[in-house]
Amino acid sequence: MAEFVGVAKSYGEKEVFRDVNFMIERGDRIALVGVNGAGKSTLIKLLAQTEPLTQGEYRLGHNVDPDYFAQDQYKELNPESRILDDLGEISPRSTQTELRSLLACFLFSADDVFKRIGVLSGGERNRYALLRMLLHPANFLLLDEPTNHLDMRAKDVLLKALTDYNGTVVFVSHDRYFIDKLATRVLEVGDARVEVYPGNYEDYRWRKEGGAAALQKAVTSPAISLPTNGNASGQTAKSEDSAARRLNPIKRKQMEDRVHQLESEINRLEDTITECEAALQNFVSAEETQRVTQELGLRRADLQSRLAEWEELGQALQT
Ligand SMILES: Nc1ncnc2c1ncn2[C@@H]1O[C@H](COP(=O)(O)OP(=O)(O)O)[C@@H](O)[C@H]1O
Ligand SMILES: [Mg+2]
């Protein structure tokens, strides 16, 4: 559906990509991962054709219509429009009630919906821009950090919308839960390269932690063949590198300390969650219910991320 062939990208002297090759299939949901400055936003812009290639070729399938959600997407909106009217214009067949409930999912209150876009905060405008895009999705979505400024509830709505969506998505996110739930493949960006990892984010982490290499050692037959996608060569070599990396004793001690710290945090979070759940059984007021629900959402997200870190450390310490 989309393919990069020998793509290079530089901004003047600054080289971001060199000889990048990969293919995106219809229906893929691809997470771009990599450290800050690695080139994730640049890759999204190249795919969106808002930034030119320096070298190579970008082949895009017939009828593929990329839609780009930038980190500062809200700048594209008309500041004079009122939220509800603006949404009504792009979705003329929806009723007011439908639009309002959609807006409520994205945390816009009954009063907010009459506000002009221009008076919203940057975060609110981004949230609104995202909702707007989801009403009319193109068949190739390019999302640069769409979860910024979203709280748990809005994130869940976005996640649901994107998992139900039949088109192709390439997205950048630092939200682990979000990547875990959404990605069908992972592209790792860094060192002027793009590496393709088949499978979801969990598979990716497993490979990074040396899972593939460990498995390969256990199997006496030649390398197990993995369902790769053309240009994925080099990924097993990379996993072997990380497996071979020995933990030094200082690092190990730090990790063990962190594990203990995480365990007590996890215990505390579990207690808080139990308390919130109990509190929700006793209705006090709508406001209180909302507050507790929100708190519960945040604590559950905290718990998720701590459990994931705890698990990851546990695995790393076993090697
Ligand atoms: N318009 C630009 N002009 C010059 N350098 C840029 C430009 N955009 C990004 N860069 C540089 O390219 C590199 C990759 O940036 P970016 O794609 O934004 O990374 P990421 O999104 O992974 O943080 C960084 O070193 C950044 O400073
Ligand atoms: Mg970026």
Helices and strands in order:
Elements: E1 2-11, E2 14-24, E3 29-33, H1 40-48, E4 55-60, E5 66-69, H2 83-90, H3 96-105, H4 122-135, E6 140-144, H5 152-164, E7 168-172, H6 176-182, E8 185-190, E9 193-198, H7 201-208, H8 211-218, H9 235-244, H10 249-281, H11 286-318
Parallel strand pairs: 3-7, 3-8, 5-6, 6-7
Antiparallel strand pairs: 1-2, 1-4, 8-9
Helix pairs in contact: 4-5, 8-9, 10-11
Bound molecules: adenosine-5'-diphosphate and magnesium ion.
Adenosine-5'-diphosphate binds next to β2 and α1.
How are the strands of the largest sheet arranged? 5-6-7-3-8-9
Order of helices and strands: EEEHEEHHHEHEHEEHHHHH
| Major sheet summary line | 6 strands, mixed
Strand content: 15-25%
CATH level-two architecture of the largest domain: 3-Layer(aba) Sandwich
Name the hetero compounds present. adenosine-5'-diphosphate, magnesium ion
Q: Give the N-to-C terminal Cα separation.
A: 40 Å
Helix content: 40-55%
- Oligomer designation: single chain
Any key phrases for this structure?
319 residues, alpha/beta, Rossmann fold, 4 domains, six-stranded mixed beta sheet, three-stranded antiparallel beta sheet, binds adenosine-5'-diphosphate, binds magnesium ion
Q: How would you explain this protein's 3D organization?
A:
The protein is of the alpha/beta class. It has 4 domains: 2-72 and 129-190, Rossmann fold (3-Layer(aba) Sandwich); 76-127, no CATH class; 200-244, no CATH class; 249-318. Helix content is 48%, strand content 18%. It contains 11 helices and 9 strands. The strands form 2 sheets. Strands 5-6-7-3-8-9 form a 6-stranded mixed beta sheet, with helices on both faces. A 3-stranded antiparallel beta sheet has the order 2-1-4, with no helix packed on it. The longest helix has 33 residues, at 249-281. Mean pLDDT is 83; it is low at 216-244. Bound molecules: adenosine-5'-diphosphate (ADP) and magnesium ion.
